[in-house]
Amino acid sequence: MIWWFLFILQSISAIPICTNHQNSKDIVILGALLPLNSGEDCLEIKLRGIQQLAALENGLNAVNAELSNSGEVKINLQILDTCSNTNKAVKATMKGLVSAEQTCLKPPLFLGYIGPDDIEELVNVQRITSLLNKTHVLPYKIDFKDKSSNIFFVGMDQTSKRANAIYTMLRNLGWENYVAIIEDSPKVSSVLDAVVNSSNGRICPVDKPFILPKTINGYASVYRQMIESQKRSSADGALVIIDKPETLRPLLNILSNSDNNQRPPFVVFLMTVGLKLWEIPNTDTVSIIFMQESTEFKSKNEFKQFFNESLIFNYREQNHKGLANNCSSADPVCLDLMEDELDSSVIPLAYSVHLFANALKIAIDQKCNHESNSRSICPSMKSIQATEWMSYLRSATTILNDVDGPKRIRFQMEILHYVSIYMANVITKQVDLVAKLTNGDRLNFIKNVYLPVSTKLTTGFAGNSPSCLLYKSKLSQFTTLASTADITVSEKESDDWSPIWNFLPNGNKNPNQKNDSYHVFVVLICIGVGFGLFMIITIRMLYKMFKFQTSDTNQSKKKRKSEKKKAKRSSSVSSRKFSRTGSVISIRST
């Protein structure tokens, strides 16, 4: 189907359907694949999508003002809703590609795409856009296995910072072990692995993590297994790591309706915004600390003025129905203070618009410098190939005036990581913002609160506990503390001993322990036996080959001897016949 779509798209691209557009040469298009809605019918408005759109509008407003002062070029934003679904993201991409604004505008008149930042959506969308050399810019680096040249990342990978933030909180709570519950996502799994590595054996999960199912039906089973594991191991609490808030809601519903009074404390880490405070269980029987990954608080007003009024109105109407079904409007806990939290992606998305605009200006300076009208898109711009446009985009960099002073913006830059910490107040029945975490290690309390510290005071090191060893044995053998965010294939392939150690009769198959004489002795025996078998097989093959050649030589010699004997016999017979004939002739003549 994709190949037919590409064939039709190429045919449409050859038709000059934009020739009647006025001033089309000065308009460039920037596509945005955003999760504005979700749900089966794509009707549930997402706060994260609203905030991401506001970030792009904020950046677009700034760059168009700058472009209008130096030229006649204007960037228009084309919004494509992915509906938070892989198939619908692909359809939205196809819709954008076949639209008249994009099929007749090639790079750099079509700048590229911003998003999608969901890895599953990106994998499927990139199969199409890579064939057409369309660029994607994402807010943060993700573990994308296909190292494609058309994907650009504004910020560095946040895995290690997220892991450090979680470890800092667990350390302040005095936990030594925990039950891990994670979303079924490679990004979330890598964060849990990084948490274990960053703790260096001090705080570890008691067992393999419980993975939340894709459907609601399996949540009750996961919850029962988690409670049983916690009781069996006497873990200090449960650590929940979630990317999308909708994955957490069924678990919160179970906590709200459960009558179990022996539930462990929970630490919940959320990577994206969208959770409502009234969705948090309002009960004294469970203690929950929410760690919401967010953006710097001082940037809130800068982006909120660009919120789409229609989307915000529909979003609040949608929340009003939820409030009516879950709590009274007079209840303080129903005030959705989490709505003020900005998603961590808004800052790099705003930066991405500036980088696109800077690459466009570089292209204009390179191609239109000698043209009569160098302030707009010149004819030479239309001859730029996609690879050349990617080189301009790759070298893009600019300086923005931040609150703290000028800041250089570029791809794969370091961006500060912020986490807002919320905790329920059992006295006021409210969920309050109590602290902020910066870059994973700087914990600043906003209110004087008492953290629910574990009754088991930590000893400072639990590296020999069975739980740590159990989980670490499941981790990659070649993961190092220096790079917990990126586990490359080359690190896994660097150990040539691994095929041998798998067959050794010892549970600790670590080839790095060079002082283990037993392992060395066994490996040498294996190598010696293998080499001996190789030599025996080789010698036997050579012997058979030599024997075969010798037999062939003997047979050829015998054949030549028999031919010589036949030749001698034939010559003697002919000579005798000739002598007899001669004697007969002589007798007749006499």
Give an overview of the whole structure.
The chain is α/β, with parallel strands linked by helices and 590 residues long. The chain folds into three domains: 208 residues, Rossmann fold, CATH 3.40.50.2300; 260 residues, Response regulator (Rossmann fold, 3-Layer(aba) Sandwich), CATH 3.40.50; 57 residues. The chain is built from 17 helices and 18 strands. The strands form four sheets. Strands 8, 9, 10, 11, 12, 13, 16, 17 and 18 form a nine-stranded mixed β-sheet that branches. The longest helix has 73 residues.
What tags apply to this protein structure?
five-stranded parallel beta sheet; Rossmann fold; 590 residues; nine-stranded mixed beta sheet; disordered N terminus; alpha/beta; single chain; 18 strands
Please write the CATH class name of the largest domain.
Alpha Beta
* Structural class by sheet pairing and helices: alpha/beta
Radius of gyration: 37 Å
Distance between the termini: 108 Å
User: Could you list the spans in which at least 5 consecutive residues all have pLDDT below 50?
Assistant: 1-24, 457-464, 476-516
Strand content: 15-25%
Number of helices: 17
Total number of beta strands: 18
What is the overall silhouette? flat
What can be said about this structure in brief?
This protein has 590 residues and is α/β, with parallel strands linked by helices. The protein is 45% helix and 16% strand.
Question: Any chance you could write out the topology, listing elements then pairs?
Answer:
Layout: H1 2-13, E1 27-34, E2 37-38, E3 44-45, H2 47-70, E4 74-81, H3 86-98, H4 100-103, E5 110-114, H5 119-129, E6 136-140, E7 151-155, H6 159-173, E8 177-182, H7 186-199, E9 204-205, E10 210-211, H8 219-233, E11 238-242, H9 245-257, E12 266-270, E13 288-294, H10 300-304, H11 309-326, H12 346-367, H13 386-394, E14 398-402, E15 405-409, E16 418-425, E17 430-438, E18 442-445, H14 466-472, H15 489-493, H16 498-501, H17 517-589
Parallel strand pairs: 1-4, 1-5, 5-6, 6-7, 8-9, 8-10, 8-11, 11-12, 12-13
Antiparallel strand pairs: 2-3, 13-16, 14-15, 16-17, 17-18
Helix pairs in contact: 2-12, 3-5, 6-7, 12-13
